[in-house]
């Protein structure tokens, strides 16, 4: 039996996350936020004080971490049963995620982790490369977009809600 997958891709601020969560909730399907995968591993590595030069240790943590996404009004990301949502946006998390994303064996393991989210009754997969690399056989593929101004406005609002100082004009220019 083929398990249906709907992939939603597009640039930052296009509304992928919001739409993906709403669709998953409405359909009663599983949800995957691919952008949180590497950041979740980064959090696990920081919590366990793993040496980022030890690729085998990083791969071991990647293989054994338990990751879950809960779609409510806001996304909740759980690592080994603990809510880590607030830690996903930390600078240290992003820096660590960038380092480990360059490791081919880590990428292989995390690709499999993403594919493992494909479970009944179906999956809504949010993120870059979902319909091309992770689920090339997806039942349906959507590419969302919005104007640069609208994407900057959404990003500005998102940052302000998190208490992060932001400048709308510089976000628009980026």
Task: Summarize this entry quickly.
By secondary structure, the protein is an alpha/beta fold. The protein is 47% helix and 17% strand.
Task: Please specify the SSE layout and strand pairing.
Layout: E1 5-9, H1 16-27, E2 30-33, H2 35-47, H3 55-64, E3 67-71, E4 75-79, E5 82-83, H4 91-100, H5 104-115, E6 123-126, H6 130-134, E7 140-143, H7 148-161, H8 168-173
Parallel strand pairs: 1-6, 1-7, 2-6
Antiparallel strand pairs: 3-4, 4-5
Helix pairs in contact: 2-4, 3-5
Report on the structure:
The protein has 174 residues and is α/β, with parallel strands linked by helices. It has one domain (5-143): P-loop containing nucleotide triphosphate hydrolases (Rossmann fold, 3-Layer(aba) Sandwich). 47% of the residues lie in helices and 17% in strands. It has 8 helices and 7 strands; from the N terminus they run E-H-E-H-H-E-E-E-H-H-E-H-E-H-H. It has helices spanning 16-27, 35-47, 55-64, 91-100, 104-115, 130-134, 148-161, 168-173, and strands spanning 5-9, 30-33, 67-71, 75-79, 82-83, 123-126, 140-143. It has a 4-stranded parallel beta sheet with strand order 2-6-1-7. It has a 3-stranded antiparallel beta sheet with strand order 3-4-5. Helix 2 (35-47) crosses helix 4 and helix 3 packs parallel to helix 5. The longest helix is centred in the last third of the chain and has 14 residues, at 148-161. The protein is globular, with a radius of gyration of 16 Å. The chain starts with a strand and ends with a helix. 30% of the residues are buried. The model has no long low-confidence stretch (mean pLDDT 91).
């Amino acid at each position: 039996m083929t398990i249906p997958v709907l992939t939603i891709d597009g640039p930052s601020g296009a509304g992928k996350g919001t739409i993906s969560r709403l669709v998953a909730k409405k359909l009663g399907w599983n949800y995957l936020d691919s952008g949180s995968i590497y950041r979740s591993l980064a959090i696990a590595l920081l919590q366990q004080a793993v040496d980022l030069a030890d690729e085998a240790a990083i791969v071991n943590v990647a293989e054994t971490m338990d990751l879950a996404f809960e779609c409510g009004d806001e996304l909740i990301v759980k690592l080994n049963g603990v809510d880590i949502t607030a830690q996903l946006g930390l600078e240290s998390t992003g820096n660590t995620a960038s380092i480990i994303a360059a490791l081919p064996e880590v990428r292989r393991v995390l690709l499999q982790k993403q594919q493992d989210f494909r479970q009944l009754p179906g999956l809504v997969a949010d993120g870059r490369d979902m319909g091309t690399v992770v689920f090339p056989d997806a039942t349906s593929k959507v590419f969302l977009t919005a104007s640069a101004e609208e994407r900057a406005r959404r990003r500005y609002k998102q940052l302000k809600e998190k208490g992060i100082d932001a400048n709308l004009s510089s976000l628009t220019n980026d």
